Amino acid sequence: MDPRLAERVALVKRILNSNWYLTLSTVDENNNPWVSPVFFVTDKQSNFYWISAVHSQHSENIARNHKVAAIVYDTQAAFGMGNGVYIKGTVEIVSDDKVEGILEMITQRKRETSPDGQVTVRDASGFKADSPWKIYQLTAAQVWTLKESFEPKGYPGDFRVEVPVSDLKSI
């Protein structure tokens, strides 16, 4: 792997592992944008998962249009040093047969974020069939991060550089 690409893959991994919220961007039936922060986990295939009510605005938007954009940004970065993982992809509701495995990943990550390691373990049946809560899966089609900053005409700026999704597997 190219050393610059390896650095970008490591950056993506660091940002995803050290931040708990993904900001999800959807659009409604009139193409009005809507953003929502969601607590997320990832799997070894670079899919992103979260729990949401089916009647929340972003879930209703997804039901109409599965295409989304998202960002996980480094909330600990100093001013001028920020970076993020920019994602474009599609979302679907996790099938009932996969709910238990994904729910365990979410529960484990919640334990990692809890000050005392204690979390309420939810029963998988609360996310299956006609439940008002579902687990959603974002399958990334494209992922970017920011390249080094530059200053055209003295004004600071950034630009994105794509990180191939295939290189992010198993992060």
What do these coordinates show?
- With 171 residues, the chain is of the alpha+beta class.
- The chain has helices spanning 3-18, 57-64, 99-113, and strands at 21-27, 33-39, 41-42, 47-53, 67-73, 84-93, 133-146, 160-162.
- Strands 1, 2, 3, 4, 5, 6, 7 and 8 form an 8-stranded antiparallel beta sheet that branches.
- The radius of gyration is 17 Å and the shape is globular.
Largest sheet: 8 strands, antiparallel
What is the overall number of helices? 3
Anisotropy-based shape: globular
* Rg of Cα set: 17 Å
β-sheet strand percentage: 25-35%
Descriptors:
single chain, about 170 residues, alpha+beta, eight-stranded antiparallel beta sheet, 3 helices, 8 strands, globular
Layout of strands and helices, then pairs:
Elements: H1 3-18, E1 21-27, E2 33-39, E3 41-42, E4 47-53, H2 57-64, E5 67-73, E6 84-93, H3 99-113, E7 133-146, E8 160-162
Antiparallel strand pairs: 1-2, 1-5, 3-4, 4-7, 5-6, 6-7, 7-8
Question: TL;DR of this structure?
Answer:
With 171 residues, the chain is of the alpha+beta class. The protein has helices at residues 3-18, 57-64, 99-113, and strands at 21-27, 33-39, 41-42, 47-53, 67-73, 84-93, 133-146, 160-162.
